[in-house]
């Protein structure tokens, strides 16, 4: 990974915004890229920028290959599509081994690895609780559930209720209502897959962004590291906190200050603690993670939002990760970060 810090403010940061807004929208800047591809996938938008294509790579053919791969991944991981691979697995009963595709297997293996590292804070079976709180396919259901319903759903969550055979690429549900959901790392995996496709075409400079998760390689159209703005976690307006110059890294973020609902004066985040079944209640409002794998960064960002400041920092340090935590206090936003993240704020 390579980084430079270009600008730093006093507050907090959350969403990763590819490049700086404003000049990025001009036709002059767009013309500097051989590929500036924008479309939708996996319920969100994506952008791919490539300054220069190799002579033997044609732009339209490349876009077609990218879209085909993204459509394939969407057909595997979307919980909104009844015929997706994950939906078919969720619809099947317990007790039988279910074969899965290699891509599904890679995501399953990483989900279970981080589940173990986090002692259950990252849980790919938490889907029923997320849906119960109204943050799933039916957003109109945003209500505070009763304790008994939460208690009952906790009985059908937890990775101890599934068996995973990584060698034969098959999974077995030990309880009927186990519901897998890879939304906390599937977009990151999709970013990695598009990056792999580009690298296989000998493309050495690119930016891939899907739903705010990024992978950056080489340099941008001006020959500089890719400029990535980190947004302050303010609700009413969008403001840039700091701008980093990044190359050869994946970046992912997670936060609770835009996806939530309020009821009787209380605020409920979309991030659900698998241990309690309730919305998280701590000072961390956003987390940013940098890692060679965007899938891994994506999963860890969610994990740290669940764990909170102290436990999250402890795990981040154990795993030698570059992580920025933003806390909301009575005095304003406070930043906490690992030593690895602090190092990337220097010119290398």
Mind explaining what this structure looks like?
The structure is a single chain. This protein has 348 residues and is of the alpha+beta class. It has two domains: 232 residues, ApbE-like domains (T-fold), CATH 3.10.520; 97 residues, ApbE-like superfamily (T-fold). Helices cover 30% and strands 28% of the residues. It contains ten helices and 17 strands. Strands 3-4-8-9-12-15-16-17 form an eight-stranded antiparallel beta sheet. Strands 1-11-10-2 form a four-stranded antiparallel beta sheet, with no helix packed on it. It has a three-stranded antiparallel beta sheet with strand order 5-7-6, with helices on one face. The longest helix is centred in the first third of the chain and has 19 residues. The chain is globular, with a radius of gyration of 20 Å.
Query: How many beta-strand runs?
Result: 17
Gyration radius over CA: 20 Å
How far is the first residue's CA from the last residue's CA? Answer: 9 Å
Mean pLDDT: 85
Task: Characterize this entry briefly.
The chain is an alpha+beta fold. 30% of the residues lie in helices and 28% in strands. The chain has helices spanning 27-30, 59-77, 85-91, 102-117, 127-132, 147-154, 186-200, 294-307, 309-318, 339-343; strands spanning 2-8, 16-18, 35-41, 44-50, 97-99, 162-165, 170-173, 206-210, 213-217, 226-231, 240-247, 249-255, 260-263, 266-269, 284-291, 322-329, 332-337.
């Amino acid at each position: 990974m390579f980084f430079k810090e270009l600008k730093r403010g006093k507050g907090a940061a959350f969403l990763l915004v590819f490049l700086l807004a404003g000049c990025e929208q001009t036709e002059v800047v767009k013309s500097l890229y051989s590929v500036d591809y924008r479309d939708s996938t996996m319920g969100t938008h994506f952008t791919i920028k490539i300054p220069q294509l190799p002579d033997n790579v044609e732009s339209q053919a490349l876009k077609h290959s990218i879209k085909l791969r993204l459509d394939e991944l969407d057909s595997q991981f979307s919980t909104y599509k009844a015929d997706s691979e994950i939906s078919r697995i969720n619809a099947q009963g317990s007790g039988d081994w279910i074969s899965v595709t290699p891509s599904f297997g890679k995501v399953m293996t990483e989900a279970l690895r981080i589940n173990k590292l986090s002692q259950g804070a990252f849980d790919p079976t938490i889907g029923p609780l997320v849906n119960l709180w109204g943050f799933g396919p039916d957003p109109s259901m945003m209500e505070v559930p009763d304790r008994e319903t939460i208690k009952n759903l906790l009985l059908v969550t937890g990775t101890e209720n599934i068996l995973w055979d990584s060698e034969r690429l098959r999974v077995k549900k030990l309880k009927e209502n186990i519901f897998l959901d890879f939304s906390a790392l599937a977009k990151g995996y999709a970013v990695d897959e598009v990056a792999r496709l580009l690298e296989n075409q000998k493309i050495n400079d690119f930016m891939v962004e899907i739903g705010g998760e990024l992978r950056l390689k080489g340099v941008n159209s001006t020959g500089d590291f890719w400029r990535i703005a980190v947004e302050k976690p303010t609700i009413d307006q969008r403001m840039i906190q700091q701008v980093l110059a990044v190359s050869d890294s994946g970046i992912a973020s997670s936060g609770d200050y835009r996806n939530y609902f309020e009821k009787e004066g209380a605020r409920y985040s979309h991030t659900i603690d698998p241990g309690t079944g309730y919305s998280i209640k701590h000072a961390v409002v956003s987390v940013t993670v940098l890692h060679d794998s965007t899938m891994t960064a994506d999963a860890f960002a969610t994990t740290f939002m669940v764990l909170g400041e102290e436990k999250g920092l402890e795990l981040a340090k154990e795993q030698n990760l570059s992580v920025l935590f933003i806390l909301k206090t009575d005095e304003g936003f406070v930043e906490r970060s690992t030593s690895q993240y602090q190092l990337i704020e220097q010119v290398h």
